[in-house]
Amino acid sequence: MAEPVVIVDHLTYSYPATPNVLVDVTFQVQKGEVLGIIGPNGAGKSTLCKALNGLVPHFYGGRIGGRVIVAGMDTMEHSVAELSTKVGLVFQDPEDQLSGLALTVYEEVAFGLMMLGVPKEEIDHRVREAIKKVGLEGLEQRSPFELSGGQQQRLAIATVLALKPEVLVLDEPTAQLDPIGKFEVFSVITKLAEEGSTIVVVEHEIEELATFTDNILLLDQGRVKAYGSAREVLTMVEKLKSVGVDPPSVTELTHILNKELGLNLEEPITLEEAFKIYSEVLGVA
Amino acid sequence: MAGEVVIKVEDVWFQYPTGVWALRGVSMEVTRGELIAIIGQNGGGKTTLAKHLNGLLKPTKGRVLIEGLDTRTAPQYEITKRVGYVFQNPSHQIFESTVWDEVAFGPRNLGLSQEEVEKRVKWALSLVGLEGYEKSHPYDLDYGKMKLLTVAAVLSMKPEILVLDEPTTGQDHRGRHILAALCKKLNEEQGMTVIVITHDMRFVAEVAERTILMADGKILLDGLTRQVMTAMGILRKAAIKPPQIAALSNMLNNAGVKINALTVREAVEQFRRVLKKP
Are A74 and A102 within one domain? Predict the structure, then answer.
């Protein structure tokens, strides 16, 4: 089997002023895998994202133990600049991501490539491809600041995709968006996942994560509390609730019914699965 | 008094200086003691409507009456006293350097006695569960507590009507549960009229009895949350996903199962009934 794209091996990290933000975190992401990271605020999720592209510790300082290897590069031995073409990090708020310098959507996506000195024809090709992947065709000449929230976040994803990273890391990409914006961004992530992109995504929208992630890692107080297939982790109803994370409603419902009525229903993690299970048990399938 | 109308919005139109019409003929009434959610996409007019309720914005056409006071002509402090407004982003609201001073600012501004200010600050902090943080700097609080602080800072003015603009944005699940419980407590125990603008349908299902759906500056739906969440056609057109349990209920209903649940708790009770083996 090929080498995993991301290897996080016994990672422990303290910010200069905050100790043990991550403690002994271990996981791997295979090529083409989608990993969801869940957990309460303050669990260390964003710090973990920053450890994947070297911002932790190169920019933030602090003390680090263990290893992070992305696309074969040990993050301790490579600069953030070198890692930036391997790890595409998308922030929660698109306004943190956009340069603020580009007058158009096209220029915004081209910006990073120009900084890297990519030849002009190659830039044009990659910009068009990235804009197409996030569904912003036709808006190339718009100002980034005229876009809706969902469009801005898709633009932020495009600026990262244009660099052709080995892994896309999204830190709560829908937290600031309205329902249409969330739908747009989840549609793009789902499509990228189907096309075989390697993705790490931090989200509170567990019911959405359930529809497109392969594996899920539950983080609490810097430690891995659960790690496995999406189904394994999302059906750990009690464990999730004990750290303040709500499982999908249909999972929780079925879990409670199984317990209280002594049933043995399969615990669904998506709406479609739940409809199938309940149609059958109620004899309306 | 039950059934007393405290807010009356009469055919309100509003045009921003940019020329955009953000409200296009909105009419609604709010009765004392209601807990209402306003939902809809950004740009639909939710926040513009909310800002009309405390007089931050005045109608271009039509009028808004708060306990009979016309927001266009009544002194602003008379409106502010009655309607508390909690902004979406805590940092747009917080400006004092301790939790105590932040919550005391409003009542001090009302010219209340030192004793009364103290009483109110204590009361507001205990309602949101921030006792013990009086001396903390607001920005040392985590995001969830910061939100609660902004609610307390408004509560200390003892408004009869509380408007919360997207209180759960950026909160984790625990933060959402705390805010849901707080909204219910203020409504049920303190008798406050509460209006919540939100994108969080699970929150709506758990908290609000009545839901108003806005789009393009108009009210598309206004009714019991239970009814609004089953109006699948209109919700789909407005690109609103009902909470997962409501969606499951709707699908099973279409298949002929009598289920009408909004929350996990309700669904457990109803399934318990239909699954009961003979």
Answer: no
Tell me the two tokens of residue A108. 């915004």
Amino acid identity, residue B162? Answer: L
Residue B74 DSSP code: S
Q: How many CB pairs below 8 Å do chains A and B form together?
A: 96
Q: A64 and A1 in one domain?
A: yes
* A130 and A207 share one domain: no
Residue A115 is encoded by which pair of tokens? 């900084």
Q: What is the ipTM of this complex?
A: 0.91
Instruction: Give a three-class secondary structure readout of chain A.
Output: CCCCCEEEEEEEEECCCCCCCEEEEEEEECCCCEEEEECCCCCCHHHHHHHHCCHHHHCCCCEEEEEEEECCEECCCCCHHHHHCCEEEECCCHHHHCCCCCCCHHHHHHHHHHHCCCCHHHHHHHHHHHHHHCCCCCCCCCCHHHCCHHHHHHHHHHHHHCCCCCEEEEECCCCCCCHHHHHHHHHHHHHHHHCCCCEEEECCCHHHHHHHCCEEEEEECCEEEEEEEHHHHHCCHHHHHHCCCCCCHHHHHHHHHHHHHCCCCCCCCCHHHHHHHHHHHCCCC
Torsions phi, psi for B74 (to 5 deg): -70, 150
The residue of chain B nearest to residue A40, with distances taken between CA atoms, is B172
A41 shares contact with chain B (CB less than 8 Å)? yes
Nearest to B21 by CA among B29, B30, B12: B12
User: A249–B264: do the CB atoms touch at under 8 Å?
Assistant: yes
Q: Residue-wise pLDDT tens for chain B (278 aa)?
A: 458 999 999 999 999 999 999 999 999 999 999 999 999 999 999 999 999 999 999 999 999 999 999 999 999 999 998 999 999 888 888 889 999 999 999 999 889 999 999 999 999 999 999 999 999 999 999 888 999 999 999 999 999 999 999 999 889 999 999 999 999 999 999 999 999 999 999 999 999 999 999 999 999 999 999 999 999 999 999 999 999 999 999 999 999 999 999 999 999 999 998 887 54
B5-240 CATH: 3.40.50.300
Looking at the fold, whether A5 and A80 belong to one and the same domain comes out as yes
Domain of A198?
A: 1-86+167-181+190-234
Query: What's the number of domains chain A is made of?
Result: 3
Give B-chain residues touching A153 at CB under 8 angstroms: none
Residues A14 and A47 in one domain: yes
